[in-house]
Design goal:
Rossmann fold, single chain, 15 helices, about 450 residues, alpha/beta
Length: about 450
Amino acid sequence: MRPVRFRSGIAGTIAVVILFALVAVAPAAATGAPAGAGSVAENTGFGAGGSAEAGLASTGAQPGDTPPLWADDVMPTPIRDDPFFAYPDDPDRLAARADGELIRHRRAGTVQIGLPGNRLHQFMFRSENSHGDPIAATASLLVPDRPWHGPGPRPVIVNAAAIDSLGATCTPSYALVHKPFEFEIPPFTATVLDRGYAVLVPDHEGPDMAYAAGILAGRIILDSVRAMRRLPALPHTGVGADSRLALTGYSGGAIAAGWAAQLQPVYAPDVEFAGAAIGGVPADFALLPETMNGTLGSGLFIAASFGLAREYPRLLTSLNDFGQSMARSPAKDLCAKPLMASGIAMQKIETFTYPGVLDSPDARAVMAENRLGGMPPKAPVMLFQASDSVFLGDEWIPESGVTQLFDEWCGQGADVIYAPIPGEHLSGGFTSFPMVVQYLSDRLEGVPQAPGCSTQQWTGS
């Protein structure tokens, strides 16, 4: 096993907070944007909008242009210290592979503190991006040391972790073998490993770390299951090709899990889930500017916007001079903690873009394309959300978007429970934790979810 390298996130956190704070005091000087330029996020049909052509002098671009020549410069820095994560450089050979086909795989040892004894299998496989182009993606399968004594093969929970990051070294697979102090909070993986379940953790942001690109993430998750079934070591893990599968994700992970559940019937009918628990889901990006832009959630909001631009690089033409500099700076490799901490500066996205950009047809199309609800999942689903009807309520992800998703999926014939929970966005991951573990365990053990749709306080299955 390669030597563990300890990296401190403190310096990165301090640097990005200072950087955003400096921008706050003199954004006009830094960006060259016209004085009084309106917020990009405010010009999406949510409020008074400006011209989509305004403020283009710094880039010379029009919305909808092809990607800028410097698009490659804003992609994440490749991983240099572990050759397993080197992506294939032969596009024709990659394209010739089937979705879910293994590219490489390895046995590795987890270095993360707090995980029970397990065998780690990491693999790279072929998948597709949002546009149907072939990509390589990675995932990790953790199998507990304890034998499985239940009926049938060992079940697998697909954990769509909230990666919420821009850097290649921020993925769960990299952290499992290089970052001993990268704790999962709450300890979902450790808890379900203790129950004897295997855990599949896909790196669902893909090779370009396209945070918030839902279609991409859903396809990667589904293809990771296909690839897992092809692992040569699978017969020795207790996991089988017909193992029961369950799916979960919260916050940024809920984007990925929601899209995997929604795409499964059409993209991967061979991958069936016994149930999916999806919480704190940003189902409709159009609702987020009001609650995240210019608030303590702004660091993640801006990062997610940039992640989408990586997947739809023609949108990079919306960046002003300062935005281009930031996109090519070390900030492009930040992980979730410093990105979240940068929200203390409460910046608006207009600092980095020309005003009115989201009035463009391309930007509107990207938001609509990544909005959940257009197709019903086949698997039974539990949606859960911190709600002020219980206590506090989610200050970043409006409950209205989740209840709208509930209504749309139910109207299309899906079986969905909506469970409002106490807390706000961050604490909602904790207050829902016992409920999620029990829900997934019930589905994996063959306890059926009642057909149809219902809204209920969680009291058990």
